Amino acid sequence: MPDIAAVKAALAAQRIETPSWGYGNSGTRFKVFAQPGVPRDPYEKLDDAAEVHARTGVAPKVSLHIPWDRVDDYAALAAHAKERGLELGAINSNTFQDDDYRLGSVCHPDPKVRRKAVDHLLECVDIMDATGSTDLKLWFADGTNYPGQDDIAGRQERLAESLAEVYARLGDDQRILLEYKLFEPAFYTTDVPDWGTAYAHCLKLGPKAQVVVDTGHHAPGTNIEFIVALLLREGRLGGFDFNSRFYADDDLMAGAADPFQLFRIMHEVIAGGGLDAAAGISFMLDQCHNVEAKVPAVIRSVMNVQEATAKALLVDADALAAARRSGDVLAANAVLMDAYATDVRPLLRELREEQGLDPDPVAATLRSGRLERVAAERVGGAQAGWGA
Ligand code: LRH
Ligand code: MN
Ligand code: MN
């Protein structure tokens, strides 16, 4: 049986990175429902992230999205983060909101548009230099809507050239995390639609390029834990954008739609040694909270990842190996299901108490009156990003 002290130590050491855009106003293309007290600038987004970290103890990193989080002085932003016990995490590029990108960015047929897109990616590396961030997270909205619209292989060539230029600019301890997404906004071809395409580009680029798995970016029924196991084995799993989806890219709270899937993913991560800090896997959230209160929702999401991780850590690896060796399919499955069926909330409450935290982080932030206080202080919140 797993040693509970070791399970707790692993849970205390896990780091979950939260996205700056999860703290701001967001919505669908139909409506953005503004909430009182949302951050007015990247500094205030960090203040909200600090509350999440203070309540959970495991969320000290914050991903930025450029230009949504553009500031004059990134070193000052990093210093603000540090003062609040945080550090700046992945820098996410954005080559999907300019009119110039109607037909794509790094895959665009016009070299002038590709130049602009690559320059933006290079600017993101400059920002990483200033913030101390090690991860450049690239997601491209590039693709086509109609058969014949553009040359599929030609677009791959343009993508490879653009990526190579950015890769060459990386510092020794910096890396590219290449994200894939099945569809949307393009509806016929997407230039990086799946892990295989991302993996092929990463292989060509070199060891500082890894794949990021956004859980919301797959076709329904895709076995995501298989992808995770394979990438991890190949040393090309850079991290996760955790969120939940019911239909397409819904960006709901991690663990809300399918906690069993999150458990299965974390089981493969742990089995492959991916929870050790040395593996360098980033456990990031990529979510928007359109109708629910944002800081409590981010806290809940962090807790959901912790619960899935705790259950995966409770898998009796010896019993599982023995059942597998003897070909006992039912027993092997039972080992996994026993761990999944365990209520880990008491364990996590105990761990938080040992760390001097409130055992119920959501209740604690609600009780603290912080939501009301910032609502009074902050008038005129910024849009999280979609359009900002
Ligand atoms: C694209 C995506 C990507 C973006 C983020 C805002 O759907 O998952 O990670 O940077 O959403
Ligand atoms: Mn994502
Ligand atoms: Mn997404």
From TrEMBL:
InterPro entries to which the protein is assigned, alphabetical: L-rhamnose_isomerase, Rhamnose_iso-rel, Xyl_isomerase-like_sf, Xyl_isomerase-like_TIM-brl
Ranges of residues in domain Xylose isomerase-like TIM barrel: 72-249
Entry GO MF terms: isomerase activity
Keyword line: Isomerase, Manganese, Metal-binding
PANTHER family xref list: L-RHAMNOSE ISOMERASE
UniProt protein name: L-rhamnose isomerase
Keyword match Manganese: yes
Pfam families reported for this sequence: AP_endonuc_2 (PF01261)
